[in-house]
Design goal:
It holds the Pfam family PcrA_UvrD_tudor. 48% of the residues lie in helices and 14% in strands. The protein is α/β, with parallel strands linked by helices and 802 residues long. It folds into five domains: 32-133 and 222-316, 3-Layer(aba) Sandwich (Rossmann fold); 141-214, Arc Repressor Mutant, subunit A; 324-414 and 586-691, 3-Layer(aba) Sandwich (Rossmann fold), CATH 3.40.50; 418-580, PCRA, domain 4 (Orthogonal Bundle), CATH 1.10.486.10; 757-801. Strand 18 (765-773) and strand 19 (780-784) form a beta hairpin. It binds a DNA duplex (15 and 10 nucleotides) through residues 91-93, 118-121, 144-145, 219, 222, 254, 288-289, 291-292, 391-394, 397, 414, 451, 453-458, 487, 489-490, 577-579, 581-582, 599-602, 623-626, 635, 639, 660-663.
DNA sequence: GCTCACCTATTTTTT
DNA sequence: ATAGGTGAGC
């Protein structure tokens, strides 16, 4: 573990300080004036302001990254701060890497001595260094959300909780929230009211006990345990306070309570020690992580939390055209109780925002692909300049299908992540079991993978033995033969498994991670099973495992390049903390010419010349689950704000009138966010009018012209003027689009319904056929749509059997 | 104890 | 659509 980090020595002083001071010039040659040249007034203030605490309210695209990196460089260059005294907290590992690089570009290699990382990585670093104070083994496992859910499943089963009332996922979420609030199990149990809360309290208590026994920490524990460590061991806290004289936090609006407390601990003064200089940067309008405990109050109340705070607002946007900013401002200004802030740009109006209403999500994707194609032909845009955003990961599929079909190169960031694939998780579970014999969740995951004749019964017998004799699950496996009621076959299987782990553990003491991984995959028979399989999916799994081996090899090379030893634990830590979205190098030449697909959440902090914001439908974006709740709706609106402000030059907004959600198509109304845009900002290339025309209920194709100067209602319906050219285009698209074929399919399929069939009506949604009468063209069906029952002539009704 | 076939609920968003 | 859970049959 030590290999990865420069740790503070036991007295808390960074070991690097002394030698560094001796061997390097204290004062770099960089001229502080040159550093701030080219910054505008507020930016320059934000960089040079000496004193604490400092809140930088940075609007989207206001050069926040530049200000932060320059501020750090300024500390080092002009204010004689040692890099070892700086800790900067970023939101993602990728942001940390970039920040470190940029600072290094300004002040040179000594920037390496700063701590720049996410909250989670910083806490792991501290906990590894202080593991004995924190009551941890040095090789604790880190559980991600999926591991937590699995453990919670075991816990819920053990407590005999009804899975309907208390699904493991829900329990895990509630427990996570409690941890973010720094509420421990006892406190919560004491105040728990009603059976629901008491069940959560029980689950929380047992869950924590099981984590402890497994020498594992989940993501929330990493923060919470560090806070508790500082609170219960003041001398440990003091060491870090003495060390870190400058604390900088990016994306402060996305901090949760535990992270807030951690910062407080870090920057509070002690006897004879001034508080550290704190600088936080954020934008309340870009807070989009409340669902995982982030609380916007931290930034709104900064001035109350920290006396004498200075606030600097960065309101000039350097990223987007005024048109795009106007749209963003219009949307976000609908959030009540928001501190007013108005971004402005001097880049001129730029291109109009382009809107498009497609009939289906396929047509929407077709249009996006076609438009990207047109842009790359007609302008100097490259595919790499384009990003396509959507609300949920599932929406990426249809874009992928279309992009593959038309040969448009793309990459999906996030989504079904590499590290979440079953085979990768299995392999990592082996590695964790090797490193940490007590990691019950990992051991139980792989003890019968591949099959060794160890079933649920045997697993239960071992578990019973472990709780009866109060030994760990791993220790109980070694004495499997003593387990009451276990079959001899299972005992043999467990024996093989234990021996396998032993051998691998021994290997891991000398071999680098990639060799241990390869040995694991071959010796366990995991790889052989996949290779022999006839399931075509399994070939892909083999490739993923090869990829994982390469990741391990790269890790080893990188660590050894720093003259440190690559350990298995270190590799696992990297894998646990580094999301693979972080690993996509933005300047990788392979990705230069590639369209980027990602969720709006992933898009935070990025920018693209051309942005497609898709799926703008009530129920999709804003998401269905947010519709009933004003707070959540505000968060969705902030998400829209984030999405819009990612665009530099061109912004496209699109939606689909019908969209297949989990199999069945559904009719979606326009997103309210579209209605919130000033209509002169958007030129609609195609409107819903084009859609209704083919079904016979609407007016002229795309020619609803003039549109609603009269206002909201019409625009809300998606009607807006289209140029004749746009109308012609719309008609052409309507005709070639996959939609029209669907329309004719609908008409042919309609007469075939029978009583009891489930059907979907384009307007009324899902229904069930109650009765059918008549034959051929005159056939009618009585359909129950839930809120109403009606007789429809099948030949004319846009009904589809599902 | 394992495998297959069927059933169901499930989808926000992520360090 | 699809993963995960349940139950029957081997």
């Amino acid at each position: 573990m030590r290999a990865l980090f420069e740790l503070p020595s036991p007295d808390g002083q960074p070991a690097v300080l002394a030698s560094d001071a001796d061997s390097r010039p204290r004062r770099p040659q960089l001229d502080p004036e040159a550093l701030v040249a080219g910054l505008n007034g507020p930016q320059r203030d934000a960089v040079t302001h000496a004193g604490s605490p400092l809140l930088i309210v940075a609007g989207a695209g206001s050069g926040k990254t530049r200000v932060l990196t320059h501020r750090i460089a300024y500390l080092l260059a002009a204010r004689d701060v040692h890099p070892g005294q700086v800790i900067a907290i970023t939101f993602t590992n990728k942001a940390a890497g970039e920040m470190k690089e940029r600072v290094a570009a300004l002040v040179g290699n000594r920037a390496r001595l700063m701590w720049v990382s996410t909250f989670h990585s910083a806490c792991v670093r501290i906990l590894r260094a202080e593991h004995d104070h924190a009551g941890l083994k040095s090789t604790f496992s880190i559980y991600d959300a999926d591991d937590s859910r699995r453990l919670m499943q075991l816990v819920a089963r053990e407590l005999d909780l009804d899975p309907k009332r208390h699904p493991a996922r829900g329990l895990a979420t509630q427990v996570s929230n409690l941890k973010n609030e720094l509420v421990d199990p006892e406190t919560f149990a004491a105040r728990a009211k009603g059976p629901m809360e008491r069940a959560v309290a029980e689950a929380y208590t047992l869950y924590q006990r099981r984590l402890k026994e497994a020498h594992a920490l989940d993501f929330d524990d990493l923060i919470m345990t560090t806070v508790h460590l500082f609170q219960s061991h003041p001398h440990v806290a003091e060491n870090y306070r003495r060390r870190f004289r400058h604390v900088l936090v990016d994306e402060y609006q996305d901090t949760n309570h535990a992270q807030y407390q951690l910062i407080k601990e870090l920057v509070s003064g002690t006897e004879g020690l001034e508080p550290a200089e704190l600088c936080v940067v954020g934008d309340a309008d870009q807070s989009i992580y409340a669902f995982r405990g982030a609380t916007i109050r931290n930034i709104l109340e900064f001035e109350r939390d920290y006396k004498d705070a200075r606030t600097i607002m960065l309101e000039q946007n350097y990223r987007s055209t005024q048109t795009i900013l106007n749209a963003a401002n219009a949307v976000i200004s609908r959030n009540p109780s928001r501190k007013p802030k108005r971004l402005w740009s001097d880049q001129g109006a730029g291109e109009s925002i382009v809107g498009y209403v497609a009939d289906t999500e396929h047509a929407e994707a077709d249009w996006v692909a076609r438009e990207i194609d047109r842009l790359t032909d007609d302008t100097d845009a490259r595919p790499g300049d384009v990003a396509v955003f959507y609300r949920t990961n599932a929406q990426s599929r249809v874009f992928e299908e279309v992009f593959i079909r038309v040969g448009l190169p793309y990459k999906v960031v996030g989504g079904v992540r590499f590290y979440e694939r079953r085979e990768v998780r299995d392999a990592l579970a082996y590695l964790r079991a090797i490193v940490n014999d007590d990691d019950t969740v990992s051991i139980r995951r792989i003890m019968n993978t591949p099959r060794r004749g160890i079933g649920d019964r045997a697993e239960g017998a071992v578990e019973a033995l472990s709780s009866r004799d109060r030994i760990s699950f791993g220790a109980a496996m070694r004495r499997a033969a003593d387990a009451p009621g276990i079959s001899s076959r299972a005992v043999n299987g467990i024996g093989d498994f234990v021996a396998l782990l032993e051998g691998l553990r021994e290997l891991s003491e000398t071999a680098p991670p990639e060799e241990v991984l390869e040995a694991t995959l071959t010796r366990s028979g995991y790889l052989a099973e996949l290779e022999e399989s006839t399931d075509p999916q399994d070939a892909g799994r083999v490739e993923n495992l090869q990829e994982l081996v390469s990741v391990a090899r790269e890790f080893t090379e990188r660590v050894e390049g720093n003259d440190e030893q690559a350990t298995l634990a270190g590799f696992l830590e990297q894998v646990a903390l580094v999301a693979d979205a972080d690993q996509i190098p933005s300047d990788d030449p392979d990705h230069q010419g590639v369209v980027t697909l990602m969720t709006l959440h992933t898009a935070k902090g990025l920018e693209f010349p051309i942005v497609f914001l898709t799926g703008l439908e009530d129920g999709v974006f804003p998401h269905m689950r947010a519709l009933g709740d004003n707070n959540e709706l505000e968060e969705e609106r902030r998400l829209a704000y984030v999405g819009i402000t990612r665009a530099r030059q061109r912004l496209y907004l699109s939606r689909a009138v019908t969209r297949s959600a989990w199999g069945a198509p559904s009719y979606n109304p326009t997103s309210r966010f579209i209605a919130e845009l000033p209509e002169e900002l958007v030129r609609w290339e195609r409107t819903e009018g084009s859609y209704t025309s083919w079904s016979g209920t609407g007016g002229g194709v795309g020619n609803r012209g003039g549109s609603g100067a009269s206002g909201g209602a019409a625009r809300g319906g998606g009607f807006s003027g289209g140029t004749p050219k746009a109308a012609a285009l719309a008609q052409r698209l309507g005709i070639d689009g996959s939609k029209l074929s669907t329309a004719s399919e609908l008409r042919q399929a309609a007469p075939k319904v029978a009583v009891g069939d489930r059907v979907n009506h384009q307007r009324y949604g899902l229904g069930r056929v109650l009765a059918v009468e008549g034959q051929g063209p005159s056939a009618r069906a009585q359909i129950d749509f839930g809120d109403q029952t009606m007789w429809l002539v099948l030949r004319h009704a846009p009904v589809e059997k599902i």
